[in-house]
Amino acid sequence: MADLKAQTPTQVLDVLGRVCPYPLVLTKKALEKLPNGGILKILCDAPASAEDSLPRFAESKGMAFEVVKTGESWDIYIQKP
């Protein structure tokens, strides 16, 4: 698996303060506009989204992803194939 966090993201999506399902909905919309091979960095503080729905979504779509806990929030990296 690629070290996504070491690469410069194509776009940063800030969903801090939003709870399910908004982080997932906004992530799907951002990924639609992202070019193939682009990396989306998501700033998220909703545990259910960071630890469950976003990784599960990326995995189901065959996208590489990486979740990094940073204090009270998470940085989630998803690479569009």
Overall description:
With 81 residues, the chain is of the alpha+beta class. Helices cover 32% and strands 30% of the residues. Strands 1-2-4-3 form a 4-stranded mixed β-sheet, covered by helices on one side.
Strand order of the largest sheet: 1-2-4-3
Strand fraction: 25-35%
Provide a count of the helices. 2
Total DSSP E strands: 4
Radius of gyration equals: 11 Å
User: Helicity range of the residues?
Assistant: 25-40%
Largest sheet: 4 strands, mixed
- Structural class, judged by helices and strands? alpha+beta
Coarse morphology: globular
Order of helices and strands: EHEHEE
Uncertain segments are: none
Residue-averaged pLDDT, rounded?
A: 95
Search tags:
81 residues, single chain, 32% helix, 4 strands
Brief summary:
The chain is α+β, with helices and mostly antiparallel strands.
Write the layout of secondary structure elements.
Layout: E1 11-14, H1 22-33, E2 39-44, H2 47-60, E3 64-70, E4 73-79
Parallel strand pairs: 1-2
Antiparallel strand pairs: 2-4, 3-4
